[in-house]
């Protein structure tokens, strides 16, 4: 046995190493439906590239992730000066708030929203102005634009998290045009790969037209690289350079660059995976609605069940499925495999068709007989007016 093989065998036999390996989450878990991770492990080409990286993990990565920046810029056909790299979209969001805003500045957020933004605002010392979604889970863009008049940052998730809803391109551009030019618009596109191409914003045109816009994207969702923490921002040169100037030296490992390069090279396989998730999303949404469970019109890799008179959180608590629970009883469920969908449908159908005395969902009176996406709020009413802070 060679020295390298002996060392590998010793590491595998070491009790501490074995214990640490046991904490790794399984790559495929039909019950893990709470974090919107990819249902499948990284593409074969990515795994091969990562294996090569491990063999050189004793070496430092680039001082700054210039190669990764070049890869992203070339793939998107934008100048490098419009791109910044970070540890996930979350890392870039926090970097932006800390660099471009001062403690005490206001940040406008929809409610509910990806919880990370609440934490980022708190860490940056910002004052949060909350604007509730409308009763169909969409942004109240008029109220957000009004609230943004004296704010430093306004965040728009498209598709929205947790409802998966999508504002039209025209509405988004109109909204940005109504926001003051010295207010930063953070457009979170973490799930954009699951959106039909015809409904995506032309980012090249957007950042050229609006120098106060920062678009955030990630390799954690559609690309299945959540564990590597890779994200990027697209913005006009001034904002992109601000984010790039705060890059931590040696902060992005070489494995991230190799994984992105391999993902881009295997684009056709990635598109097949995305198409599978989109098809499964359509199937699950249709079956949920047919069963009488109201869902928003999701364009991401998850579905959202508003409370609408019942607590889905309590129903899923003892189901064996890990879903994302919200305080009002609503849940967000990651789209995974057909097996996962069947498990979800089983829980929902049992709740809606259970024995007498069991809590049943109620169809909001205003929505009876109306096809398509259903309202988020109970009894089809709008949520409370925005808090102007």
TrEMBL record:
Region ranges (Disordered): 353-389
CDD domains on file: AAT_like
Cofactor(s) demanded: pyridoxal 5'-phosphate
Keywords: Aminotransferase, Pyridoxal phosphate, Transferase
Pfam families: Aminotran_1_2
Family: Belongs to the class-II pyridoxal-phosphate-dependent aminotransferase family.
Identification of the protein by name: Aminotransferase
